[in-house]
Amino acid sequence: MKIGLIGGTGIYDPEIFKEEERRQVKTPYGISDVSIGEFKGREVFFIARHGKGHAIPPHRVKYRANIYALKSLGVERIISTNSVGAINENLHPKDVVIPDDFIDFTKRRDLTFFDNETVHIDVFDPYCPEIRDALTKAADLTVKKVFKSAVYACTEGPRFETRAEIRMMRTLGCDIVGMVGIPEVVLAREQEICYASVCMVTNYACGILEEKLTVSEVMEIVKENQGNIKKIVTKAIEMVKEERDCECKNALKGARV
Length: 257
Ligand SMILES: [Zn+2]
What we know:
By secondary structure, the protein is α/β, with parallel strands linked by helices.
């Protein structure tokens, strides 16, 4: 089975496997750098979302190129890692969250592969239940506190959110906030790829505590918790079922107008 791994903040190289090949995959949406290797008998395709040295900011990530490249390499399942801010007051830095829904607050991203035909894909369960299941079990074996469902709010960035924005998101039922989850999850579904994300809480969202948010604090937590996220991802890669029984593979059935 071919598994894609999209590493977020703090995860810039695969490490968990020996890179056997690095490919620059040309797509209609730009070039995507993919590291290819093997882990426990599974072929793993790794993309660092922010590029080497974190050079690509959230609003400039080549979301379509990355998903298209993984699809063209035969990837059927994707695990992604994200750093998020906590909106829900039960969440604290270092907690692990497996989102099951999202609200999209992005403003100017390429949100679809279907610009020249009308395709409405269903996102009743936007994150693949089978990958979520594997990530949840893997997280339970690794850290004490795992939140098994959550609503992910995606903002455009690159600035942090205002207090009023977080207040609004909280009222709307958002639990965590980040800048890169959308459109990745949607684009994967459009390509009928299973996709789920493991999120690490790195900070309280703006105004949840009466403090200013600083990048250095966020990065410190990222550094402290990289090990755990990598452990969760590696266990999940082993646990993901070989055969797909979920509906992700049929996303385009009946979706065209
Ligand atoms: Zn699936």
